Amino acid sequence: MNIKIIYISLAVLLGQYINAQTASVEKSIYSVQFGPLGFWLNNESRLSNEFSLRTEIGFDAGVNLKFGNQTNYTLAPSLNMEPRWYYNFTNRMSKNKDSKNNEANFLSCRISYIPDWFVISNKNNTNIPNQISLIPEWGVRRNILKSNFNYEIGIGIGFLYDFENKSFDRANDLHLRIGYTF
Questions:
Q1: Which parts of the chain sit beneath pLDDT 70?
Q2: What's the distance, Cα to Cα, between the start and end of the chain in Å?
Q3: I want to staple 61 with a disulfide (CB 3.0 to 4.6 A). Which of 16, 37, 106, 116 is the partner?
Q4: Tens of pLDDT along 67-113?
Q5: Mind listing the domains of the chain with CATH numbers?
Q6: Three-state DSSP class for 147?
């Protein structure tokens, strides 16, 4: 009787270990993403089964709508670093849902640097000062039709530091991106 309990306990522990091994962040993935306010190239590297570090370079866009006047747009380079915690891998696995390419819900803390290198704009003499922002976020990443195409939605509120004016301000992030993982 005791040997059966030992075997059953070992089987349960081994099953949990195997399940925990399959439900984890991908080792390293590269993606390109596009959204209404920019485009980005990124890499996401595993730190542990549920944590990753996402590094990203791209262009953030801005639009200034002026009724009756010309609408102004800008594109500025941005460098981003974002530790992410994918908190629902195990839950997705228990429901037989996919986690390929880090398809899960996440909490993160996005650190963005927008340097004053250059700006692409339809208005002359447009500049964006050097700034850095720190924004805690909640987001969802899902694959489209079990392919390497995906979408990502995120929302967060944090703060921004403007180096030119030496001032802090509130920063918001609401993003919707469509991407492809290589």
A1: 1-22, 66-68
A2: 52
A3: 37
A4: 667 778 899 999 999 999 999 988 888 888 888 899 999 999 999 99
A5: 2-181 (2.40.160)
A6: coil
Residue 112: other Cβ atoms inside 10 A: 21
**Strands 131-143, 120-121: pairing kind:** unpaired
Q: What is the pLDDT of residue 176?
A: 95
- With beta carbons less than 8 A apart as the criterion, state whether 181 and 26 touch: no
User: What pLDDT sits at residue 2?
Assistant: 66
Q: Are 26 and 47 in contact (CB under 8 A)?
A: no
d(CA 83, CA 63): 28
Residue with the two structure tokens 């997705």: 92
pLDDT at 20: 46
Tokens at residue 95, please?
A: 């429901």
Ramachandran quadrant class, 146 (left: phi over 0; alpha: psi -120 to 50; beta: rest) = left
- Helix residue ranges, H only, the chain: 2-22, 89-94
Query: Rounded distance, CA 130 to CA 79, Å?
Result: 12
